[in-house]
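Here is a typical sample entry:
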Amino acid sequence: MRLRPLAALALLALAPLAACTGGSDAADRDAAASPTAAPTVTGTTAAPTPAPRPSPTTAAAPWGRGPLFPGHVLVGWAGHELSPGLGVLGIGPLSDKARQVRAAARAYAGPGRRPVPVFELIATVVRGGAGDDGMYRARADDELVGRYLAEVRRAHGLLLLGIQPGRADFLPEVQAYERWLREPDVGVALDPEWAVGPHDLPGRVFGRTTGHELDGVAAYLSGVVRDAHLPEKVMVYHQLAPQIVTGEAGLHRHPGVDIVKTVDGIGTPGAKTGTYHQVIATRPAFVRAGFKLFRDEDRDRGGRVMRPAEVLALRPQPVYVVVE
């Protein structure tokens, strides 16, 4: 399996009114030049019309207050509107996405398997420039998160806030979105591929994390669920190779938190299946399985990407299928 290339992520070059905060843009492209050129980033030149802020008093989790699993399969698109290179969720107008992702999710329906549409918004994105705090990442502002949440609620779905922390730790990056995590239909997706050490540059090396660091995030989310009387909250962590997450025994079960390990990586259907079996085998018994598809890069010589029936035939069967 060919690992996901570091250049596949477009590092943000932020305009003054772009929907992210944190860091300076002067050295973005040069400081994080990867082995091949990153895709061009498209920015915004004017602030979009603010969306109404969703309220937990008017919205519930799509599955209600009962258990999410078993009985459901999450089917999502990942990305960010500042660049199509960040994933399919950033291609085309946001106003079309609720209808499109709901249609895509229906292909995974089956007996005892109700699909839940998901937007995985890459909310904290690694950057080429260090920024004022030296953390090499930018956070989405409330206006952007609010628009994506309002749209995914049109699909009766779930919003996952993707976290690419750069040199920062995962926990403070997740805590920065607590206003949104107190909503009943917002979870997180952690991407340790982009969690680098204090002397490393994102885009030059693969990042990594530990079960202990993931456990800190899960414990925090459990507290949010308890304090705000919320339904179960989803915590995803992505992994493309065994060395990306070490010491998974340090990750423990926490009340109110459903943890999913999603296997990343680019390759043909056969190669992806092999990597899935290798990487998913190390997860703790209570952690559920997920699978990522890359819409363009995963095509075989016939131009084919794995079909829903093939993904659902994987064992263990993924409870989260995300397309980037």
The chain has one domain: 6-323. Confidence is low (pLDDT under 50) at residues 1-19, 23-52, 54-58. Residues 181 and 318 are 24 Å apart (CA to CA).
